[in-house]
Amino acid sequence: MAEDSNIILANRTDAQGTIEIVPEVLEVILGIAAVSVDGVYQMRGTMASTINSWFGRANHGKGVDLTVDGKRLTADVYVYLDYGVSVPKVAMAMQSTLREQLLFMTDLTLDEVNVHVVGVVPEKAPKLDPDNLFADDADDDNPEEDK
């Protein structure tokens, strides 16, 4: 989880005050960016985020732990990947995407993006027809054999 201190964006000469961002907002930005990478099935959640999702409340920051150490930002991202993807390629794409999105949206740079692959999710089996549970594929191809 993110620390309790707000992050102050760099002071600009044209600004009329300061801009502060709560670290949880950065976690949400990084979580949404991580899910958008091809090959990512979903983010790892906690028991609290799972219960919240049952009640219809999405937690876009789940699976992201942001550490703020002075001006140094480190993100730990915990993901499930699709079966068959290249783990190094997806991890490097995530690192690049997360850095770019955070820089684009907040002008902050991530010093480290650590990708933790928690698991691999296989493809789902094809759905069965509930009206014809015991049908063979051979019978469906040649219906005159049954006569």
UniProtKB/TrEMBL annotation:
It holds the Pfam family Asp23. It comes from the Bacteria. InterPro entries: Asp23. Residues 134-147 have a biased composition (Acidic residues). Residues 126-147 are annotated as: Disordered. Belongs to the asp23 family. This is Alkaline shock protein.
